[in-house]
Amino acid sequence: MRGDAGRAAGRLCVVGQTLKVWDLASGRVEATLDGHADGVLACAVTRDGRRVVSASADGTLKVWDLASGRAEATLEGHEFGVTACAVTPDGRRVVSASADGTLKVWNPSSGCAEATL
Q: Could you read off the pLDDT of 32-48 as tens digits, one per residue?
């Protein structure tokens, strides 16, 4: 990863059902992103480093604003846990893979799945 996304990704740590954002210089936790009902299995940072998407065994994805620590959206539609996720370079789509055997393409602004493969 390069630039802001690389810096943001280097500050994230998945701990069970939460993501923790660290200040690497001081070693302190800046934020705890908590909201999934089961373990976080994957995450992806937007290219600008402002948001992170978390994928969970609870079958959902969450889009987090790193500055505020708040979930901007919860993406629901998989039948089983979400095992992987990626954000397109322009940040306008999220792709997820699930144990239900599907891939979904999401619009994180609307929270809707645009395609299921």
A: 999 999 999 999 999 99
